[in-house]
Specification:
The protein has about 290 residues and is of the alpha/beta class. The chain has a single domain, classed as Rossmann fold (3-Layer(aba) Sandwich). About 30% of the residues lie in helices and about 25% in strands. It is built from nine helices and twelve strands. A seven-stranded mixed β-sheet has the order 7-6-5-8-9-12-11, with helices on both faces. Strands 1-2-3-4-10 form a five-stranded antiparallel β-sheet, with no helix packed on it. Helix 4 (about 100-105) links the parallel strand 5 and strand 6. It is globular and about 55 Å long.
């Protein structure tokens, strides 16, 4: 990481001037005063994340071993509410395909597609593409575009958001889930860092998360597009078993988990959840 902090950077969400916020072990962070977005100076990352198989099998083992079934059910209901006989679905950053398999088991009438750097073998009822959404193989439009815990990994989030809209059919849905930088968990981690307990904040802001969306900045990313109507912006169902805790002895891990249980409950009471889900509908521009 560079010893020299740049005096200001352009916010990747709103293009406004952003000031240095925090210098961590792996990255330098900046925060935008306009949309409250927090992001990494990518030039300070020494070894960029490559998303090799160990990312799925080791670094985020809990996440992939404990899929959020309540979130999957929420998404299934949103797709059903469209009232389509054979909706086409694209899961962007589909990981190992758990959501698509869940949808396939719930309904045999969906045309299911997933794209990810993780190589999955296509199976009955599910088409997997290895790559990203700018892959030329993705030229169709879909009734539902889903992206769960993906947008925080993207640097050029404006191009990414525009591509989601481009891939979505008129009257289709875009469902975006990401972490919430204004959550109780993030807030407590930042306070702990001030008192020298650095691990929670270092993990939340580690190098593979380039963008940390507040409630406000996630909406700001999409609200300028005249083809989108916001339908819901709400708390994502909690799944504490999916949280990857720091490597430590059993006692410390139990302490972290109990602390998270408390913070998840506290976040619910204050409406400051760890994860947020934004549901949008693409409409024909009547402008």
């Amino acid at each position: 990481m560079s010893d020299n902090i740049i005096s200001s950077l352009k916010c990747p969400v709103c293009n406004r001037k952003s000031e240095p916020y925090k210098k961590l072990q792996e990255v330098d962070l900046y925060r935008c005063n306009n949309c409250s977005h927090c992001f990494t100076d990518i030039d300070t990352i020494i070894n960029n994340e490559t998303y090799s198989n160990d990312y799925f099998e080791e670094k985020h083992k809990n996440w992939f071993d404990n899929p959020n079934i309540r979130l999957f059910e929420y998404i299934y209901k949103k797709i059903n509410a469209l009232g389509l006989d054979n909706p086409t679905v694209l899961d962007v950053g589909c990981g190992n395909g758990d959501l698509l398999r869940y949808l396939s088991n719930k309904s045999g009438k969906m045309q299911l597609n997933g794209v990810d750097y993780h190589e999955n073998q296509s199976e009955e009822g599910i088409n997997f593409i290895c790559g990203d959404i700018f892959n030329p193989k993705l030229f169709d439009q879909y009734d539902v575009i889903i992206n769960l815990a993906v947008v925080e990994h993207i640097w050029d989030v404006q191009s990414y958001a525009n591509r989601l809209v481009e891939l979505c059919k008129n009257d289709g849905l875009i469902i975006t889930m990401t972490m919430n930088d204004t959550s109780a968990v993030y807030s407590v981690a930042r306070v702990m860092h001030l008192f020298g307990i650095k691990t929670p904040m270092e993990r939340l802001y580690e190098k593979h998360h380039l963008n940390h969306f507040s409630w406000k900045s996630l909406e700001h990313l999409f609200e300028s597009n005249p083809m989108l109507n916001f339908l819901e912006h709400d708390r994502t169902p909690d799944n504490i078993d999916a949280v990857d805790l720091p490597a430590a002895n059993l006692l410390i891990k139990k302490f972290y988990k109990l602390s998270l249980v408390f913070l998840f409950l506290f976040g619910r009471l204050l409406n400051k959840p760890l994860f947020q889900t934004l549901v949008m509908k693409k409409v024909i521009n009547q402008g």
